[in-house]
Structure formats: structure tokens, C-alpha cells
Design a protein that fits this description.
The chain is mostly beta strands and about 375 residues long. It is about 0% helix and about 55% strand.
Length: about 375
């Protein structure tokens, strides 16, 4: 333990210094996620930064898709140290300029040709989703809180020799901040192996419209029973408001994959009319580009005391069945309203409603 700048604030939740968390669970984490897109969807970027106190690691990644064809990425990982206010990893940094309103993302020039100096300005109120809790053999494998928020982007982004000047209102996006217990650092080596068939059904879709933001999320067991769900209809600033909504989904999968061909999501507020949102996916962003499920550069995986790496995926040659975790950048319509956003999806194992019977049988 060590006294650092974070200990100056009246924010302690344990008897310890800020660099020590209350649990000894190896899977405790604290993570930022951001995404952004030009309103025509031709350019998309995403950022992840995570801290893993009981593993002694902080890592980050920044990834860009251009024209729906190539996905470029730069990623970094280092020894965490004691100072939780130091959110710099390799060339990537995150700065809270104004809590819940304004965040700055920087990527310093590097040999992989990605650089950025960007400001996220909140469009909506922050939405605290219901707490996530999932057990395996009565042991928590997920126990965390997540906040999601929609926003505008401004600043400058360069990738693969092209520079984009982001103006407020022309580039939208969303972010989340989550913390708690979730599998990190590769396969958990503790205890007896599970005898359960792996199964995970995960939907998350924050969307931006001109005068509205929406959020839909649902996670289900194989029989369709939901262990987590949430919906919200949000009015942007300056007169920001939030209305919770019940959720439902009708997904159409592309033959031979577990990716969406199209989808309908329904948000039903306690009062008012049902909102039906139609999704038309344009292309898929591979979440491994920012560490999700990446075997070597996965979240909380030790790669060295101060390491940076980068590369590119050719989306035309990537196998959908080898990339089950994606964010599908989508044109969306809600009645006469047109918008854009993402549908993040993982479908692993059986799911009765959509006809999946085995670990990875594709849609017919």
C-alpha cells in the first residue's frame, strides 16, 4: 500500500489506501470503454482501458475501422504501480476533464499510424444499468456495476495516412464505465473445471438519433430466461431526461454465422407508446481489436512491464465463427426517426428461441 493523489479525496470505501481494493478476487477490474462514429458510419473507432489491481496490470487499446474494410489497432500494457490517477498506457491516455460530462482521449504518434486527440461531450444523462450478477456453481463470475452514456466527439483522429477532423454533431458515440468482478487475465486457474456447457447470450445496443438516445441490453440463459435486462429512452441535453423501458428482441441471423443480418428491438416505457427500432448492420467491428477475448493481449493478461503493439485485420477475410464477439455498426430507424449506433452481440452455446443447439452451430 502507498499514499497517492487519489487518497487526498473523501472517496474511500475501504479502510485501505486507494491502491488496494476491498476484495482479493483476482478478477476485480475497473474499465473505460468508448466508441465513436461518423454519422454516415464510414469510420468507426473504439477505445478500452482497464485496471486490474489484484493482477498488477493496466492495459489499453484504440482501434479504427475505415470504410468497413480494414480494422487498425494499437494496444499497450504495463505494470500498474500505485498511482490510480495515472491513466496512461504506452501512447494511450484517458483524462476526466469534467466528471460525467467531458472526457479527453489521446493517442500519441506511434509506428502503427494511429494518433488522436479527442473530446467526448455527453449528449445524455449517465444511465446506471441494473447490477450484473451471474453465478457458476454458486460462485460469482460476474458481479459488477456499469454506467452507459451517449455523446458527441470533437478533435482530430489520424489513421493509415488519413486525418479526420471531428466536429460536434457530426460524430456521435457512446461510452461505458464498469467495475467489479468479471473474468480477466485469461482462464481462471482456480478449482475444479466446470462441467457446464458454455453458454452466453449477450446483447448491448446504445443508439444515437437527432433528438433521442436509446439503450437496450439483454442477457439470457439457453431457455431464454433473462439474468440481466435494461432499456432506456433518453432526451439529449440541454433538457436531458431519462425514461426506463421494458425490452424485447427479434433477431435475424446471417446464414452460416452467429452475426446479425437484421434485428428489431422493442422498448416499452411504463407510459407512452412502444418504440420499435429496426437495425440494418453495415459491418462488424471485431472486439478482439481492443482486447476482448484476444489470447495474448486480452484484458488483464500479462505481456510485460511496458509493452506496445499494433496491427490490422482485413475484415473481408475474418471468419465470423472465429469472432463471436463483435459490435455491428448499424443504421437504425424508429418510426420516422433515423439514427446510427451499434449492436454488440455474443451468442455462444445453445439458445432455444433462435434454434442454436450446440456450442457453435451456425445459423441455418
Amino acid at each position: 500500500m502507498a499514499i497517492t493523489a487519489a487518497d487526498e479525496y473523501l472517496t474511500h470505501q475501504t479502510p485501505y489506501t486507494f491502491d488496494r481494493v476491498a476484495t482479493s478476487d483476482r478478477n476485480f477490474y475497473d474499465r473505460y470503454f468508448f466508441n465513436g462514429y461518423r454519422r454516415d458510419g464510414d469510420v468507426y473507432f473504439a477505445v478500452a482501458m482497464g485496471v486490474y489491481p489484484n493482477l498488477g496490470i493496466i492495459d489499453a487499446a484504440f482501434s479504427v475501422v475505415q470504410g468497413g474494410k480494414q480494422q487498425y489497432f494499437v494496444r499497450a500494457s504495463r505494470l500498474l504501480g500505485n498511482d490510480r490517477m495515472d491513466t496512461r498506457v504506452g501512447p494511450i491516455s484517458v483524462q476526466v476533464v469534467e466528471p460525467l460530462k467531458k472526457i479527453r482521449i489521446k493517442v500519441a504518434k506511434n509506428k502503427w499510424g494511429i494518433s488522436a486527440d479527442l473530446i467526448f461531450d455527453a449528449r445524455s444523462l449517465p444511465n446506471e444499468e441494473p447490477h450484473f450478477m451471474r453465478l457458476s456453481r454458486n460462485v460469482p463470475v460476474m458481479d459488477y456495476t456499469r454506467m452507459t452514456q451517449h455523446g458527441n466527439w470533437s478533435g482530430k483522429l489520424s489513421c493509415n495516412g488519413t486525418t479526420y477532423n471531428l466536429g460536434e454533431g457530426t460524430w456521435w458515440g457512446s461510452r461505458d464505465h464498469s467495475w467489479g468482478i468479471r473474468n480477466v487475465g485469461g482462464r481462471d486457474p482456480r478449482g475444479a473445471p466446470s462441467d457446464e456447457v458454455p453458454q452466453f447470450f449477450w446483447n448491448w445496443a446504445p443508439l444515437n438519433f437527432e433528438d433521442m438516445c436509446t439503450l437496450y441490453t439483454a442477457s439470457e440463459f439457453a431457455d431464454g430466461t433473462r439474468w440481466h435486462q435494461s432499456g432506456a429512452i433518453l432526451k439529449p441535453y440541454p433538457n436531458a431526461s431519462e425514461e426506463e423501458a421494458a425490452v424485447d428482441h427479434d433477431l435475424r441471423f446471417k446464414k452460416g454465422t452467429r452475426w446479425l443480418e437484421s434485428a428489431t428491438v422493442t422498448l416499452t416505457p411504463p407510459k407512452g407508446n412502444q418504440l420499435d427500432i429496426e437495425f440494418k448492420p453495415m459491418y462488424s467491428f471485431l472486439m478482439k481489436g481492443i482486447g476482448y477475448g484476444e489470447p495474448k493481449w486480452g484484458h488483464g493478461v500479462w505481456v510485460g512491464p511496458d509493452e506496445v503493439d499494433g496491427g490490422m485485420y482485413d475484415l473481408a477475410t475474418e471468419n465470423p465463427m472465429a469472432n463471436v464477439h463483435v459490435q455491428q455498426v448499424s443504421e437504425v430507424t424508429a418510426g420516422r426517426k433515423k439514427g446510427i449506433g451499434i449492436f454488440e452481440i455474443i451468442v455462444m452455446g445453445p439458445h432455444a428461441k433462435y434454434g442454436f443447439k450446440d456450442l457453435m452451430d451456425p445459423a441455418e
